[in-house]
Amino acid sequence: MLNRRVVLNSRPTGVPVPENFRLVEEPVRELADGEVLIENKVFAIDPATRGMLDDRESYMKPVEIGGLIPTMVLGRVVKSRNPVFREGDYGRGYVGWERYSILNPSNIAMENLRVDPQIPLTAYMGALGWSGITAYIGLQKIGEMRSGETVVVSAAAGAVGSVAGQIAKLRGNRVVGIVGSAAKADIVTGLGMDAAVNYRATDDLAGAIRAACPGGANIYFDNVGGRVLDTMLPLMADFGRVVVCGMVANYNNAGDPYPLRNLWQVLVHRITMRGFLAFEHPEILAEAEESIAGWIKSGQLKALENVTTGLENTPAAFIRLMSGETTGKTVVRLDDDVATLGA
Asked: 3-class secondary structure for 124-183?
């Protein structure tokens, strides 16, 4: 059996370009005990992948030249040597951009996914996938969110931010979304957030955020880092919590990150600032999945998706994401018969 895979052809400088990627064909190896072969249906396309394309150590190892581009995948089980999986089940795990993937117990977040027929598969890579789960864990576990607080979310029209803002609102909080365009501001207020701040449309970002939450932010859910994080630190309420989820502002220029000048405000406001990786919190996974699925089915949570079809078009979807052109969760379905939200 031949597998089609997208591998790293060259390391990007700044925003990736098509020449950084290459499509190859390789045979699928035989399964070892405990492993599962899946035919992939949907990929999650995530900004964090950009950091792994540089030759720089982070919380995940860098991709080698010629190496598979890593991502979360969802597929149908073709063959199993694992008693937890049977043919026809749906497997989810962290593997890469390829037609067939082998899941084994060493994979991050390997899971036999119980798919609800009322929910399209693409949702399990977005709002009901690790983007939505990350939003839930970040707010509930890391941010210790309580009702009646003020929550500010950056990249609020993005995959994690759009879900985080809605969850915070569903939990009874005032929510301010920080975005990069007027169109995205309309999107987040349309999702129910109380206010939106377009950081590109103001010369006084701090003033615009302060006007939207004059009492300060109890929680800042940070997806971007850089200038926005530096601006937010003096605007936190005393004993506020900064949930560090992502640093997309630095992903395309990790060698020259934006300098934080206001870090001393952590002391001034007695701020708790903590980064996290969602897959390190399995104790809250079932709660997150059950809550988000219920909100999606009831219509209380609107899952934003932008969908690309075809393995060969995966690099283009990633490039659009890293160029800031997308809203909601970027997903790739391998074939056009995979249903999407709103279809």
From this structure: HHCCCCHHHHHHHHHHHHHCCCCCCCEEEEECCCEHHHHHHHHHHHHCCCEEEEEECCHH
